[in-house]
Design brief:
841 residues; 22 helices; 30 strands; alpha/beta; 6-stranded mixed beta sheet
Length: 841
């Protein structure tokens, strides 16, 4: 067994060759002015920024001497390798014998063997396999650092505790709760072999249409400022000059630096258009507090400031972050974010490195990026001093994280996943995050001995957990995937039964015996970035409102439990409810909802409501920024609002004028639930190239083509049957051009369900604009009459010639001969290890 890092440091300090290092090394000068992309509108002025500082324990003399000696033995190739991070879906342990990479990550849809539901022991085996391979490399022995997105608990692992998303934790206003959640998350991550989480998220979402709004604690920076330090200390513990992080703690990464929550229109990876003063006042958020608490890394944002991407802005990453903010850890980029910089690609970007990115997150581009970065250092395009600075910061963090010590005393203690103590903590967090918006007639709390009807999606743990849960988008999960969890329905049934009452689950709200009260659970289905961006805040599904109105007409008091990653315009639903609870995305401990809604046998509260709005609730569905303190601030429910049993307030009838005429366009949904989503429509083309509208039951033209008719699929008339003539033809979905470049960068895919009705006799291609891939063999191999799902990566179609910056045809099916196929649910979907990239034409 190797000596511990502390022992090695002590040995080095006592040797004659030990080098005394300054306690706070001076940052290397950033990218030269000639190479800079920074404009005057995006130039930070360090003198305007507040001061912070990493603890002295991060750069103690022993650590710096150890790093100096280690670097003196490292080859140039080994140093460059430290700056490259690969995703486990694109690298194998044996690759580390050839490539001296310094880091791996498990991205949102990456898992052992591509199995998103892999057991925890498989995750441990994966970590050990990569570490063992890295240890076999010749030369300097530098361990890997392994990162993962544990953003609301260890959300990648079946059986882990899933805490409420940050939007709910922000409503709790409880810094000590946050610290304890950080500790529990760190322990569950550590037992599965990872060293580092990409959190805490310190975004201040200012436009709730942003698909990542739920990752922020509040629209006002005060909440993140109060949480950043406790969460950092919970994850990492207190840094010490004498020893690395204690067992069960992991490295954190404050993200996404900077102003990712302030982009225009709430567009993910978009542009923050504002002054430096406002960026400091609002979006600097809790970064100073995280730095003061010792956060070991910071992730740079995909987004821009006044048109300049942060990943290439040296005035932000170097002049400010390593200047007045005094950050001594390392900066990691986001997923292939460097490829978005001018003159760069995913495979090459000296600009980002010179600007202050210390480690490239290069999930699938790591191999060519390693080669190009090595060449750029050799040529001088990347100065050697800049490389050494980055490597020093990375090695410093590895020492502090304890990675030079072979001992991993908590790894493999899988009983810590979803442990009773962690579940109790998550349940407490659920209780404290609930916000009561309305309680007319004191329908709440519900007497535990009552006859309670539970409707809607109460028995769906996946919906209650939201995105970033087992998969990136959080889709496709069933209750079986949460063996240690409890649904809202289960928690209600447990509480009611214990009080001598009767609870009945009826998804559509129907009943044979009239209940004393009904609880209807509904809300948004899971999403993450890309999929989560919306045009308005109008809650569109009609079924919950219809259920509420039926129950109201039957004289049944109703309680709505609304699951969402943001405030939404739900005035009709609130009007149809006697009580309305914003439950956000509570996670796996649904009993926390019952703890507050269900009282004792006498109808007295067992727990009162605690949460208050950390995001303003909209009066209309327009979705324009609505934040406390802005001019003409006029919410339906203001920032800080939240009723309690002890403080009842009558709400009364709300306006049901949404303020919007239509829901606008859709970037990711084309044909769903039997309808073409605006503005998309179906067009047909015959063999001669003439177009026709895709009307139902349209016949083929004399020159061949394709006919279409409605038919049943997953639902009644939810699909379209396409019949191609012997002469061939094409069916396509079209509209005005949209930009899908961001989606391709996130490895999104064109997905659709299909059923082959008549095997093709000629080539069949899937087309996106000018990009086409051959699906002939796939359709020929499919059994007739059997429904299947296909996902083709956007990047595959891009490489086949599609211009993703101007997509006016996101889906098309062309056959050169007779073919029959039925399709439904055409949309963009995330890559969950189930995508394909067929051959191009």
């Amino acid at each position: 067994m190797r000596k511990t890092a502390t022992a090695l440091v002590i040995t080095l300090m006592s040797s004659a060759c030990a080098v005394a290092m300054p306690s706070r090394p001076v940052p290397v000068q950033a990218v030269t002015a000639e190479a800079s992309i920074v404009t005057d509108a995006a130039r930070a002025h360090p003198g305007l920024w507040p001061r912070a500082a990493s603890p002295a324990a991060m750069t103690d003399r022993a650590t710096e001497a150890f790093v100096t000696e280690l670097m003196s033995r490292m080859t140039l190739e080994e140093k460059v390798g430290q700056t490259i991070q690969a995703d486990i879906g694109s690298i194998k342990p044996e690759d580390l014998l050839t490539y001296p990479l310094g880091s791996i990550l498990a991205g949102g849809n990456s898992s052992p063997g591509g199995d998103e539901r892999a057991s925890a022991d498989k995750w441990v085996e994966l970590a050990r396999a990569f570490r063992a391979a890295a240890a076999q490399r010749p030369g300097a022995k530098v361990p890997l650092i392994y990162g993962i997105d544990a953003v609301h608990g260890h959300n990648n692992i079946v059986g882990a505790t899933i805490f409420p998303h940050n939007i709910g934790l922000g409503a709790a206003r409880d810094p000590d709760l946050i610290r304890r959640i950080g500790e529990a998350t760190a322990l569950e991550v550590a037992v599965t072999g990872a060293d580092w989480t990409f959190g805490p998220t310190l975004a201040v979402p200012r436009d709730d249409r942003w698909g990542r709004a739920y990752e922020g604690y509040a629209e006002n920076p005060e909440v993140a400022q109060s949480y950043a330090g406790p969460m950092t200390l919970g994850l990492q513990g207190t840094l010490s000059a004498d020893h690395p992080l204690t067992a069960g703690h992991i490295a954190g990464s404050a993200k996404h630096f900077l102003a990712d929550g302030g982009t225009t229109g709430g567009k993910d990876q978009g542009d923050y258009a504002g002054s430096e003063e406002e960026m400091i006042r609002t979006h600097l958020s809790g970064y100073p507090q995280a730095i003061d608490a010792g956060v070991l890394s910071i992730m740079a944002s995909f987004s821009s400031w006044n048109g300049v991407k942060h990943s290439g802005n040296e005035t932000i990453l170097t002049d400010v972050l390593r200047g007045p903010l005094g950050f001594d850890g390392f900066v990691v980029s986001d997923w292939n974010a460097h490829g978005q910089l001018p003159g760069c690609s995913n495979e090459s970007c000296a600009l980002a490195f010179n600007a202050g990115i210390d480690m490239f997150m290069a999930p699938d581009s790591w191999k060519p990026l390693y080669a190009s970065t090595l060449a750029q250092v050799k040529s001088g395009e990347i100065p050697m001093a800049r490389l050494d600075e980055a490597v020093r910061r990375i090695l410093r963090v590895k020492v502090k994280t304890g990675l030079f010590d072979d001992a991993r005393p908590v790894e493999g203690r899988l009983n810590e996943l979803g442990s009773p103590a962690h579940r109790a903590l998550a349940r407490e967090a659920v209780r404290k995050s609930l916000v009561l918006l309305k309680n007319e007639g004191s329908v709440l709390p519900i007497r535990s001995g009552a006859r309670v009807l539970v409707a809607g999606h109460a028995d769906d743990i996946g919906q209650a957990s939201g995105g970033w849960t087992l998969t990136w988008q959080g889709t496709g999960n069933t209750n079986a995937d949460f063996p240690n969890g409890q649904s809202i329905w289960s928690g209600i049934r447990e509480a009611v039964t214990a009080g001598g009452g009767q609870a009945t689950l009826s998804a559509d709200g129907s009943f044979t015996q009239k209940p004393d009260v009904a609880i209807v659970v509904f809300g948004e289905t899971p999403y993450a970035e890309f999929q989560g961006d919306v045009d308005t805040l109008d809650f569109l599904p009609t079924e919950p409102l219809e259920t509420l109105k039926r129950l109201k007409a039957a004289g049944v008091p109703t309680v709505s439990v609304f699951l969402s990653g943001r405030p939404m315009w739900t005035n009709p639903e609130i009007n149809a409810s006697d009580a309305f609870v914003a439950a956000w995305l509570p996670g796996t401990e649904g009993a926390g909802v019952a703890d507050v809604l269900i009282g004792d046998a006498a109808g007295k509260p067992r727990n009162d409501f605690h949460g208050t709005l950390s995001f303003s609730w909209p009066k209309t569905a327009k979705g324009e920024p609505l934040n406390v303190g802005q001019p003409d601030y006029d919410p339906q429910f203001a920032y800080g609002y939240g009723l309690t049993y002890a403080r009842p307030v009558r709400v009364g009838a709300l306006s049901e004028d949404s303020g919007v005429v239509s829901t606008g366009s859709s970037l990711d949904r084309y044909f769903v639930d039997g309808r073409f989503v605006a503005p998309w429509s179906l067009m047909l083309r015959d063999a001669g190239g003439d177009f026709r509208l895709g009307a139902e039951k349209a016949g083929a033209s004399p020159r061949g083509g394709v006919s279409v008719r409605s038919t049943d699929g997953a639902g009644q008339e939810s699909a379209r049957a396409l019949a191609f003539s012997p002469a061939g033809g094409m069916a396509m979905i079209v509209a005005q051009p949209v930009d899908l470049i961001r989606q391709s960068n996130g490895e999104m895919a064109i997905a659709f369900r299909y059923r082959v009705d008549a095997a093709p006799v000629a080539p069949v291609h899937l087309a996106l604009g000018d990009g086409q891939v051959d699906l002939t063999s796939l359709f020929k191999a499919a059994p007739l009459g059997e429904w299947r799902t296909l996902k083709v990566r956007l990047s595959c179609l891009r490489d086949a010639g599609a211009n993703l910056a101007a997509v006016e045809q996101p889906w098309g099916l062309r056959s050169n001969g007779a073919f029959g196929v039925t399709v439904e649910n055409i949309r963009l979907a995330s890559n969950e290890g189930d995508t394909v990239c067929p051959t191009t034409r």
